[in-house]
Write a structure and sequence with these properties.
Keywords: Monooxygenase, Oxidoreductase
CATH topology: Alpha-Beta Plaits
Low-confidence stretches: 1-14
Largest sheet: 4 strands, antiparallel
Order of helices and strands: EHEEHHE
GO molecular function, one term: monooxygenase activity
InterPro entries: ABM_dom, AI-2_Isomerase_LsrG, Dimeric_a/b-barrel
Strand order of the largest sheet: 2-3-1-4
Pfam families: ABM
Protein name: Antibiotic biosynthesis monooxygenase
Number of strands: 4
Length: 122
């Protein structure tokens, strides 16, 4: 399964309908293992069942493991709005409320997004 498939035609930011954002999340250390498991489950389900979720890539800071960054790519604003109403997202969001100390959502515009398909875990 290839998570990211982008047209090779050059596009300006105005032509690109994808919604791309970075979530910077600070987790309560008491819940770190539980949070990581919930986020991993959520991302796997979203990628598997939602055609409009193109990528959900989550990492944590090696030096400060409670700092989590999620790179999100949706096919469109509509795909993102649909995602927010799915049972798996609501389970993740409601189930992790007590674990999240802070959340910053940053809207970004791509310069280039490239990934080798063979490096993607299934």
């Amino acid at each position: 399964m290839v998570l990211l498939t982008f047209d090779k035609t050059p596009a300006t930011a105005q032509q690109d309908n994808r919604k791309i954002r970075i979530a910077n999340i600070q987790i309560d250390p008491v819940y770190l293992a539980e949070y990581k498991a919930a986020l991993a489950e959520h991302a796997k389900v979203a990628i598997r069942v939602e055609p409009g979720v193109l990528a959900l890539q989550a990492v944590y800071d090696k030096a400060q493991p409670t700092k989590v960054t999620v790179f999100e790519v949706y096919a469109s604003e509509e795909a993102y709005q649909f995602h927010l109403k799915t049972p798996h997202f609501l389970k993740y969001k409601n189930g992790t409320l007590k674990m999240v100390k802070s959340l910053e959502l940053v809207e970004v515009v791509p310069i280039e997004i490239a990934i080798k398909p063979q490096l993607i875990r299934k």
